[in-house]
Every structure is written in structure tokens, then in C-alpha cells.
């Protein structure tokens, strides 16, 4: 009978990571370690998920013999028969009906052990799994080219590096902890002398010993207070340093990676910084000092009396040893809790961002139900983790109470036989309390390690994403240099996942000052084309040129001021109109702000509110209408005086009169405009029209004229309406 392989649990960082996480688990099961981010790239995991064929292709690239098997689960008397799984070599990846992937590790009778990237390893009746199966199983066994090995996890090294970065404060905190341990030793010696003095009937040194006892207590209290103060400062510094680093890296992350990951999940990931800093500083640092104190106190206890001291030390070691037996369970529970909490928070962020749409569609009940179900699952995971921790942390408290009684019982016959003095008993009892407390602190730090490793792993999954080379470059001061406004694309292929391009071999030529309308069905790739033109997305192949020069070869300051992009998502912040237009860039002059607001046809609205520096913008622009918010976005784009303006459905909320006035003012600027539009009034304002269909760009001639609803510009010829086009499989990004 073949040996059942244990499948390591690799948690998915986001909901769409289940396929690469299952592949990572299968590879680790056979001895090959591959980071999740590498497999995410290999499978092309994005917000659209991964299909089974792509998973098989990625598995074969890793040296596995992978194939798909279709099974049918027979039902007898309303009970599913798992015998079909017996014919497949385990572990096997099961594709569920909802598109989720899990690893089936073991089948024993009517029970199956499932490793779910979302919630971890669990055993469940096959009757619960069978209805969820899509009927497709993915088998993967090592092939001839399969190699074992791979990089080991870096979470532990990152944990050590985080402590090393704060080493002066950490050493001071450990030193203060050792001061507390030294005071415990001194107190035990004082108690031993007091007991000896009382037994001998002397009283000459009693007052001095009592004074020393008070001084020891005072010093111990001051050391604890100083340590808590220091730990608080270390936590703030650690949290601030990591938060700034995380935000900086998010702002410089590769555009393709940023667009295929869930923004809500990335935002929720930032909350892990505070929890990580709290656990690192307030649990792990004291635990380091506690280990030293426990070793020191244990040595002194044994030297006082080998029998009684050995018993006391044994109880303390028991405190440390029991949690080690459940280390793996603690790690899995911490992983599940962190991931499910992040999923709940991400869903909450997404619901709040779309609150108006939810209310307009009457979807409050559905959104509440979805969030409540995610919250319930997260709370259950937290409850399971907390119960495990409470069970283990309760043991030190029980042993602390029982240790004193056991020490006295063990010491009584030794005192009667004069093998031990009463003073030594007092000293051992005092030191036993300190030893047990130190061991409990060490256990607390030990139990915190799985959660800390989980959080730093989730953060590293985001921090390890590749940089955008252009975003890392410094933005130089504005010297007034701008590109001329001409745009050219040569054989550009672009997309968000390997093997699934959204645009293929696109050639585009826009002259300086020209207005070009980009039209096409939803899902054809118009927004991807806009991102290429704006420099937000780098092409997979081909070149994007401004004035005949590759855009990535231009100084970044010149590039970001030459090209401006207004997309469909409006982002406004609490502040003034001037702050929102300039985005807190103090180098943008008041004249540039005023001109941008005027050319965006927002000057009268702002004047009625007190001017650019007094008109208040609420969070999200809630105190402005939809059309006014769009014009604020356009004013922000115009503030840097660009030579090329990319508009992605940026006038959809404007009435015809305001739209025509806006276009007239933009014409007077002489700016080149690439306009993604569905409205014919916007298309008629352009010089010519290009159609994006199924990832390719084809010319449609001059912009059409004559449809009702507006007067076409002079000198423009008319063309017929576009033929209906089939939407491409990829999303209009």
C-alpha cells in the first residue's frame, strides 16, 4: 500500500490565489519549494481567476506530469460513493463548481482530508464535498525533469531582521528584563537571610533586610515601568517604519501587478503592520529576556537544593514543552485567521466604496449578508485560534498555583531530615514564582511566533512584487520641458497575465494637436490602450513613443508632466479644491490651478464656493455633483499643463452644453487628446475615430457627423454607425 503524502498548507493571499496556492502545496508535498508569487505569475492568476488548463500548463512547466481526469460521483440511497477517488493517485487537486481549487490529501472511508487554501487543512464527510465537485480532478506527479529543493521561507529571517533593525532598543528592553531577574535573585537571598535570622532568634539585621526588601521592590517596579515605556516607543517606531515602507512600495509597484490584484485586499494588508508590530515588540522582545531569566533562576534554584529545585525547574520546563506539541496546529490556525480576517476587511472596503451603487440597486440586504457571512467565518477562525491559545496559556497559571504546594510538600521531609534549611525553602519558593513567570512569558512569545510569521509572510507577499522601473525614478523639478504631443505605438502587445494578451500587435499614430476617438464594444481593450498611452501600463512587446522617443527613456519628471490621464474612477480627498487639483504639490502655481479649473469649466462653481483655496471638497467629493467631480478630475490632469491628454469616458456625466464648452477650451489649449468614448457627441468632437475590437485597433475614418443631439464641427465627414461587435473574452480594463 502506497504511503499517504502529507500536503503542506500554503495559504492563499487573495481569493484568486487558490490555484497557485494548490500548485505550491502539491510541489511542496513532492519536495520542491516555490514562492507563491512565482506561481501566481506562472498561472497568470488575476481578478478573473485561473482555469484548469492553465493550471495544468503551469504544473508541467514545474516538471510535474499533470493531467485532468473527469469523474462522476455515484449516489446510492442519497449517499455519494467516494470509490471514484480511489482510482486516482493522491494527493489530487479538485476543481469545485464555483471555480475554487482544493487539494484532496486522503480518503478514508466516508471521510476526506482536504487542504483548502482558504481555510486550511480539515477533515469532512465526502457527502459535504461531493455536491461541490465540478467533476474535474487535476493529478500531478513528479516527472523526469522534476527537481527537489528551492528557496526556504524567508519569514523567519525577516522576523530576525525586524528585531535587528531596532537592536539598541531591544537590548535595552532585554537588559531591563534582566534587572528584574536580578532583583528576584536578590529578594530570594534576602528572604533566606530573614528566615535564618528568625530561626536563630536574632534581630540585629532585620530592619536592614526589610529596607533592602523595599528597595528591591522599588527597583523592580521602576525596571518594569521603564521597560513598558521603552516597548511602547519601539512599537510606534516599528509600526511607523513598516507602514511608510509599505505605502512607498505600493506606490511604486509594477502597474500590471497592481491592476490584477484586489485593491481592497491590499489595503486590508496594511492593517497587519500594527498587529505585527504589537506582537513583535510586546511579546517577542520580553520573551527574549524571559528565556535568560528562566535559565539564570533555574540554575540558582537547582544549586539551592537539587531535589526540590529540580522539581521546580521540571514544572517550568513542562510549561514550555506542552505548547511545542501543538506548534503546527497553532501555525495553521494563525494562517487561517489572518487570511479570513483580510478577506472580510477587503469585502467591507469594497462595499463602502460602492455604497451609492448598493443603495441605488437596493442591494443592502445582499451586501450585508455577504459581509456577515465572511465576518462569521472570520470570527469562528479567531475563536478557534483563541481557544487554542487560552488552553495553552492557562497551563502556566495552573502550574504557578500548584508549584508552590508541590515545592513545600517535597521540601518538608528534607527539612525534617536537615537536608535543607527553612531559608533555602523560602528562597526556592520565591525563585520558583519568578521562574514560572519567566517561563510563562517565554511561552507567550513562543505562541506569538506563528501569528507573527503569518503576518510578515502576508506583507512580504505584497512587498516582494516587482517595482515599476519608471515609478522608481526620481521626478525632477519642473523646468517647463514637455513632449510635443505626438504619440506612436509600434507592434504593441499588452495584457495583465502571461499568455492572455488584451491587445495584440497594435500600431497607432497620433499627431501633435490631433484628437482621436477610441471606440469599440465593452471588453475589447480600450482602457488597456489608454493605460499604455498614459504610461501606466508597460507593453509586453513593442514600443510606445512620444515625439519619436521611447517613453521609458524620457526623464520621469518630463514624462509625467507631458502626459495626463483621466480614467473612469474619480478619486477626491477631503481638503480644498486647490489641494485636490494640485495633489498637495507645492510647485504647482496658483495661476496653473486657476487656469486648470477654468479650462475644466468649473470656474463659476468654485467662485460661488469662495475660490480654489477656500472651496471645500468632502471625502470622495460628496458635496459635488457627478459632473462636477469629473471636471475636478480633468482640472487635476490639466494642472501640469500636459501636451497629451488621455480621457477614458471622462465626460459621461456632463450635459451636452458643458461638454461642448469643455472641448472648446481644450482645443484652445492645443493639447493632443486620445478620447475613449461611447457617446457620439464626444466622438464627433474628434478628428478621427479608431475602433478596438477583439484586441486589435482598426481605423474607422474621420469622426462621424450628423447624428441628433449636437452640431458637428466644420469640415468633418460622416460615417455610418459601428457594426455590432462581439465582446472579447477579456475584461475592458
From TrEMBL:
Stretches the record annotates as Disordered: 694-733
The organism's place on the tree of life at top rank: Bacteria
GO molecular function annotation: ABC-type transporter activity; ATP binding; ATP hydrolysis activity; ATPase-coupled lipid transmembrane transporter activity; cysteine-type peptidase activity
UniProt keywords, alphabetically: ATP-binding, Bacteriocin transport, Hydrolase, Membrane, Nucleotide-binding, Protease, Protein transport, Thiol protease, Transmembrane, Transmembrane helix, Transport
Localization (cell): Cell membrane
Record InterPro entries: AAA+_ATPase, ABC1_TM_dom, ABC1_TM_sf, ABC_transporter-like_ATP-bd, ABC_transporter-like_CS, P-loop_NTPase, Peptidase_C39, Type_1_exporter
Pfam families noted in UniProt: ABC_tran, Peptidase_C39
ABC transporter domain boundaries: 487-719
Bias-annotated ranges (Pro residues): 701-711
Listed SUPFAM superfamilies: ABC transporter transmembrane region (SSF90123), P-loop containing nucleoside triphosphate hydrolases (SSF52540)
GO biological process: bacteriocin transport; protein transport; proteolysis
Keyword Cell inner membrane attached: no
Boundaries of every Peptidase C39 domain copy: 12-140
Membrane-spanning segments: 167-195, 207-226, 284-302, 308-327, 392-412, 424-449
Domain ABC transmembrane type-1: 173-451
One GO CC term, this protein: plasma membrane
Membrane topology: Multi-pass membrane protein
PANTHER family: ATP-BINDING CASSETTE SUB-FAMILY B, ATP-BINDING CASSETTE SUB-FAMILY B MEMBER 6
Protein name: Putative ABC transporter ATP-binding protein
